[in-house]
Design brief:
Length: 149
Amino acid sequence: MTQRQPIGVFDSGVGGLSVAKEIRRLLPLEDLIYYADSAYCPYGEKDPELIRQRERTIVEFLLSKGAKLIVVACNTASSAGLEELRKLFTVPIVGMEPGVKPAVAATRSGKIGVLATGVTIAGDRFASLVKRYAENTKVITQPARAWWS
């Protein structure tokens, strides 16, 4: 009998458990491995290079456990290093991103507010989302320092 390959999910803490729970709901027959990087939690205002180093280490760990897919269940980690991870590893890697597109679609005032970590707001990924989906929308950002996991 062959062993099934799990889906690896990680976050800097326990916030990504909601993502793992949704994966479990949608894919109940899949095995999951959850990695909470509590030693470096929160990622929120850490140097992006440190976050990328942590991501590489965690992905290598999850791959050593046979993961067939990696879910980066953290906006900050996705902003800091998702593209690099996809270049370094051949396994599919899925990330998170702020809901700019649905917020723009829902706004009636032509304005949206985004609460995210400073790393997320300052990142190229967020700037690309704003450029792509919110060109004619006023985007108000606020670094949220007190509530990430």
